[in-house]
Amino acid sequence: MNFKCLVVFSYLFILNMLTCLCVNAQISIQPYISISISLSEITEDETSDFLENKAISDILKLKKQPLIVRLKDNKLKFEKMRKAGAEKYIKNLKSKLDKENKKIVNGFVEEFKFNQDIYFIYTSEFKKWRSGEPACFLNANQECDETIKLIGDKYYLAEFDFVRQSKYSDTDRRRHGKSDQQGGANLRKEGLILRDSKMDQLEKPLPFFVSKNVWLFDRSPEEMVKILNDQLSSFYNEWIDGEGENEE
């Protein structure tokens, strides 16, 4: 339950108690109802303003901070398969995964122009790098390149995964921004997602997600990267260049 829902629920509970007391005492509860409605509206507006300000902050940082693209390597899965005696299936699965990762890398190299300070790393290596252990970033050929270094904790992440449901309601995120995010609590869509350095999924109105599935068809990784690039560029042009906002 988010903060807005908790506030509204608390007021409804209090109003219910006041109703019982006021009916017995023959006192009007209209002033309390008005206060409750006003506070609810303020909470929605404040949440929306917070998300808009955060989106502007994120788009500015996405423009200049490094973007790490996490590539799945399924290291733990393959280790479990070896232990279970299913090693003969690993080669085929790894070949398919390598081809998919190659498409992702090509997509970012060729289609992502919004920010060209891009790094590629396997998920297993990212965990080590994030923990301060020696880890290896990849070049455009998906080869370990020890000359590629990234120092610091200011970066964003891009990866292909399942989107989670937002902790904010649609009314909180009602202003502007285009994203392919759809679905409810029991429907998690797969696609290209942006996260911050704390691994938290970004939020609307910033365009942070591109769905893989469109009706009965699947977009290619290159298509999804291009769509994300175009959406981020449009958002930046509308909110920063269009409204005269300056980076600090």
Key phrases:
two-stranded antiparallel ribbon, single chain, disordered C terminus, five-stranded mixed beta sheet, disordered N terminus, 248 residues, alpha/beta, 6 helices
Which segments are poorly predicted (pLDDT under 50) over 5 or more consecutive residues? 1-9, 18-29, 31-42, 171-179, 181-186, 244-248
Total DSSP E strands: 7
Quote the average pLDDT.
81
Largest sheet: 5 strands, mixed
What structural class results from the helix and strand content?
alpha/beta
What is Rg?
23 Å
- Number of structural domains: 1
Strand order, sheet with most strands = 2-1-3-4-5
Explain this structure to me?
The protein is of the alpha/beta class. The protein has one domain. The chain has a five-stranded mixed sheet. Strands 6-7 form a two-stranded antiparallel sheet. Helix 1 runs antiparallel to helix 2 and helix 4 runs parallel beside helix 6. The protein is globular. The two termini are 35 Å apart.
Question: What's this model, at a glance?
Answer:
The protein has 248 residues and is of the alpha/beta class. 48% of the residues lie in helices and 12% in strands. The protein has a five-stranded mixed beta sheet with strand order 2-1-3-4-5. It has a two-stranded antiparallel sheet with strand order 6-7.
Topology:
Blueprint: H1 3-25, H2 30-64, E1 67-71, H3 75-83, H4 90-111, E2 118-122, H5 123-130, E3 156-162, E4 190-195, E5 209-211, E6 213-214, E7 217-218, H6 221-241
Parallel strand pairs: 1-2, 1-3
Antiparallel strand pairs: 3-4, 4-5, 6-7
Helix pairs in contact: 1-2, 4-6
